[in-house]
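Figure 3 (text version): structure tokens given as input.
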């Protein structure tokens, strides 16, 4: 899953990005409000972790702009401001959850996971698809009952494909959600990654729909 993280404190940003990356998230960081607002408007994120005290454009104003424009992306407010009135302001602006600083990364991760579950219940990923099984607690993919030694990117790719086994996911979308990139070389990088996953599982574990992308369902063509 791809997360937009808007935080201007480099120390906090570094710790949180590291924690999120370990959990398999692709993190896009912005250190000021204007940049975060523009990125969030472009879409492609599953959730936003938003500091209120951002330079150039404060978090509340940014959030209000998104909501007025119809952007309903899930937002977890992260701020040093802890009074009940500021929490009310955050929720009134359209926040989905609120976590005051200082905080532990474990709580941030728990709140983010809960937010993602609440915001997209229809998109809950199945635990088992065909020969694949996803152990979300241990962050492990099993194939034919045996754990597969996947890199974090390979793990995210399989989880994304499992989310809708009949869907065909383009190389561009895989690169954007799994690798956090959208450059011209992304397609070749995805092809190499899919080949590695096949070597670790089975040649037909992931099907190629030529000209469209990849899927776990249907016949290869």
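Below: residues designed for each position.
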């Amino acid at each position: 899953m791809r997360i937009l993280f808007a935080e201007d404190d480099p120390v906090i940003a570094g710790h949180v990005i590291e924690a999120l990356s370990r959990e398999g998230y692709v993190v896009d960081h912005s250190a000021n409000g204007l940049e975060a607002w523009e990125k969030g408007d472009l879409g492609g994120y599953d959730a936003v972790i938003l500091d209120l005290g951002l330079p150039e454009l404060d978090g509340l104003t940014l959030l209000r702009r998104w909501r007025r424009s119809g952007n309903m992306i899930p937002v977890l407010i992260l701020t040093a401001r802890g009074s009940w009135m500021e929490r009310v302001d955050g929720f009134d602006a359209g926040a989905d959850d609120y976590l005051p600083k200082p905080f532990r990364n474990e709580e941030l991760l728990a709140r983010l996971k809960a937010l993602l579950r609440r915001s997209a219940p229809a998109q809950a990923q199945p635990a088992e698809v065909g020969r694949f099984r996803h152990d979300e607690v241990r962050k492990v993919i099993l194939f034919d009952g045996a754990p597969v030694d996947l890199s974090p990117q390979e793990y995210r790719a399989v989880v994304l494909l499992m989310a809708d086994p009949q869907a065909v996911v383009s190389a561009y979308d895989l690169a954007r959600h799994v690798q956090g990139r959208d450059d011209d070389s992304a397609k070749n990088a995805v092809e190499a990654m899919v080949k590695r996953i096949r070597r670790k599982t089975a040649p037909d574990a992931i099907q190629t729909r030529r000209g469209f992308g990849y899927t776990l369902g249907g016949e290869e063509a």
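The two ends are 28 Å apart (CA to CA).
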